[in-house]
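queue> holo job accepted (NAP)
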Amino acid sequence: MRIGVIGAGQLGGTLATWCAESGHEVAVTSRHPERLREQVDRMNGKLRVMSIAQAASFGEMVIFAPNWSGAREAIDLTRSALEGKVVLDATNPADGAPSLGAFTGAFGGGGFSGASVKSAEAVAAAVNGPPSEAADRMLSRAGGKSGLETLIEWAPGAHWAKAFNTISTDVLSRRRGHDPLLAEFVCTDERDAREAACQIIRDLGFAPFYAGGAKAARLTETGGPLQSREVDVQDATDALADALAGLR
Ligand SMILES: NC(=O)c1ccc[n+]([C@@H]2O[C@H](COP(=O)([O-])OP(=O)(O)OC[C@H]3O[C@@H](n4cnc5c(N)ncnc54)[C@H](OP(=O)(O)O)[C@@H]3O)[C@@H](O)[C@H]2O)c1
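queue> job finished
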């Protein structure tokens, strides 16, 4: 598949290299293309550098990994090219790589007292989808918006999914392709985006795990309970249940 990677920094550059190693044709972007020369040369033509707009057009799928502070500008340059395409959002709506202990209880104060968020219905809905309404309903009562929901507002024609945003590249590199496989949480409301995200996650040596829709992405982003959680795939259901329970 042709993949455009917008923002080839620590995360985007790593994912781009792994996608190219997995046999995909990959275009990376930088406003300083000379900094990517060594990385591109090492990949023997499987990786090329393009402008942000060109990479968005080139990709049948796009991985979106700029700094959050540059996200709006990157969207403004690519909105029409992203129309109708699956876009995997790997950002966090605050800059910096995920670090341990990031959960700050940012969901507090939303009035969850009436809901038993650990209910079987909620967890099953969040995990199994397609509808993640139960989990999303509870999250919406916590107020606020996920970074993914913000991106959907900025580029509503793209088919967005959240993935690759919870774990640092150090941990991803250490765990890639090793048993037990590391769970990669996926949040999306679009079936094609969910399928594409799951496929790429498998191609790169991880285990996709559906955590809910765009609203549920808050669970995985900066300040959320799944941020920086290194979870083996067999423990992912429990991790998601704990994350939802923490919203009470
Ligand atoms: N690093 C990790 O381990 C990790 C893990 C999970 C999630 N994340 C998330 O991934 C995102 C990027 O983090 P990072 O650590 O990879 O950052 P980084 O190494 O600083 O790289 C950021 C990239 O964003 C690009 N960028 C900045 N402003 C831009 C703009 N206005 N338009 C287009 N591109 C722009 C930069 O491109 P130029 O070369 O043109 O400056 C650079 O390639 C963050 O949201 C972070 O939370 C990071």
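queue> The mean pLDDT is 87.
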